[in-house]
Amino acid sequence: MDVQEFREFGKAAVDYIADYFETIRDRPVLSSVKPGYLGELLPKEAPQTGESWQDVLQDVDRIIMPGLTHWQSPRFHAYYPTANSFPSVIGEMLSAGFGCVGLSWIASPAYTELEVVMMNWLGKLLNLPEEFLNCSEGPGGGIIQGSASEVTFIGLLAAKEKKVKDLMEANPALKETDIRGKLVAYSSDQSNSSVEKAGLLGSVPMKLLPANESGQLTAETLLEAIRQDKEQGLIPCYLVTSLGTTPTCAFDDLLELGPLCNREGIWLHVDAAYAGTAFVCPEYRYLMKGVELADSFNFNPHKWMLVNFDCSAMWVKNAKYLVEAFNVQRIYLKDNHNGLAPEYRHWQISLGRRFRALKLWFVLKIYGVEGIQKHVRGQIRLAKQFECLVLQDGRFEVCTSSMGLVTFRLKGDNDLTERLLEKLDQRKRIFVIAGHFGGKLVIRFAICSRLTNGDDVDLSWAEIKSQADGIVPMADLREEMKVKRSIGSFELTDTAREKIRCEKSK
Ligand SMILES: *Cc1c(COP(=O)(O)O)cnc(C)c1O
């Protein structure tokens, strides 16, 4: 393919993406293909001679598009958002076009330097304590990693090495192997699956302690676990807290857990993968009080901050611990810029580095702080709107509501909610997933796509309601009317009533 063809292919691809976004609202969110569908549509071998780009684009439309789940559809409400924006898409494209690998400063000075500046911008945007920032005097700093899972694992490795080193320094008679075999780590049973995985990968038992009825890990529970483990000769070294748990977006209390970790010499990691973006808005920062007690902090701009996957922001209070855990020198990696910029390869698992800072820069520059705040506040408002709709229907109960996530269920047996989920899955018009809260089956409804608006939320709710009609008998519908009368606005139309209730809760 020559440059001229690249120009044509590239422009056609951008048009294809633009068309996709213009039609995405009308597509069923879930795909209808059956497992194995794609193998039947493609030849068994790679083509002997090359084909035209027009053929390729046609194949995308014929073979790939039907097998997509439309994550950016305004009626995709599963998991948490996976961010996407036009500035970010272009950032990805340019980064691919430059084709560099930033394995050291000299391997592409702009790669490292833009990342340093972006992590400062981002840290200030969240109002993180100064000591986490690259621009602070101390040993703290920020880096872009691929995922929150990776960050939790990296934190664990650093915490482990730090603990081994600290104990051996304090007591030279100790054997390294004895220490390593006794390390334990903690998190709550509400933390993301990747936290448990980090323990498996890092060969440190990750104890998932029971959260309280609000989904938070309490200091009391942690203290008791530490006490029992120490009694057995074990060595606590790492705690993963969540600001915005995956099941219900609950927030652990750092002011409560932090002092305990600091006192016990336990590395405190804060996983704010989804909800961290909300700290761009000052009104939500009370939820991260105590963050200054943490050793590492992470959130995913690729979740809620309009930057395409992958872009996971990690800050550490002392980067020395990462470098000590990961530094390997080779002659071909020698670089003579005298430590004026971080050598990020020592802060991460792989050697090569993508230019992720570019798309982050595009998003921050084109949206501006105000644009991102507006996005966050708008999505939280839509979640509130949904909550209001559920509250007005006597057949349902809202279980939790936090940030852009509402969990709810049909009152009564889990079986009813399970049937509702099955029906919704079969119809494919909206995508929601199941969760558990307080031992009950719930439906997680998250505002995900940046395209979702108030009408989409109404439509998603109408879809849920219409499917519930087939499950909950009419007698219960009369119950619902009673509820509506008791709120005294039955003479209003549905829409007007919804509007009033939502206004109230804003
Ligand atoms: C989504 C999520 C993760 C996993 O994020 P990845 O970047 O996909 O690894 C971890 N923790 C929490 C709290 C999450 O919401």
UniProtKB/TrEMBL annotation:
<dbReference type="InterPro" id="IPR015421">
    <property type="entry name" value="PyrdxlP-dep_Trfase_major"/>
</dbReference>
<dbReference type="GO" id="GO:0030170">
    <property type="term" value="F:pyridoxal phosphate binding"/>
</dbReference>
<dbReference type="GO" id="GO:0004058">
    <property type="term" value="F:aromatic-L-amino-acid decarboxylase activity"/>
</dbReference>
<dbReference type="GO" id="GO:0006520">
    <property type="term" value="P:amino acid metabolic process"/>
</dbReference>
<dbReference type="InterPro" id="IPR015422">
    <property type="entry name" value="PyrdxlP-dep_Trfase_small"/>
</dbReference>
<keyword id="KW-0663">Pyridoxal phosphate</keyword>
<comment type="similarity">
    <text>Belongs to the group II decarboxylase family.</text>
</comment>
<dbReference type="GO" id="GO:0005737">
    <property type="term" value="C:cytoplasm"/>
</dbReference>
<feature type="modified residue" description="N6-(pyridoxal phosphate)lysine">
    <location>
        <position position="303"/>
    </location>
</feature>
<dbReference type="GO" id="GO:0006584">
    <property type="term" value="P:catecholamine metabolic process"/>
</dbReference>
<keyword id="KW-0456">Lyase</keyword>
<dbReference type="InterPro" id="IPR015424">
    <property type="entry name" value="PyrdxlP-dep_Trfase"/>
</dbReference>
<dbReference type="InterPro" id="IPR010977">
    <property type="entry name" value="Aromatic_deC"/>
</dbReference>
<dbReference type="InterPro" id="IPR021115">
    <property type="entry name" value="Pyridoxal-P_BS"/>
</dbReference>
<dbReference type="Pfam" id="PF00282">
    <property type="entry name" value="Pyridoxal_deC"/>
</dbReference>
<dbReference type="GO" id="GO:0019752">
    <property type="term" value="P:carboxylic acid metabolic process"/>
</dbReference>
<protein>
    <recommendedName>
        <fullName>Aromatic-L-amino-acid decarboxylase</fullName>
    </recommendedName>
</protein>
<dbReference type="InterPro" id="IPR002129">
    <property type="entry name" value="PyrdxlP-dep_de-COase"/>
</dbReference>
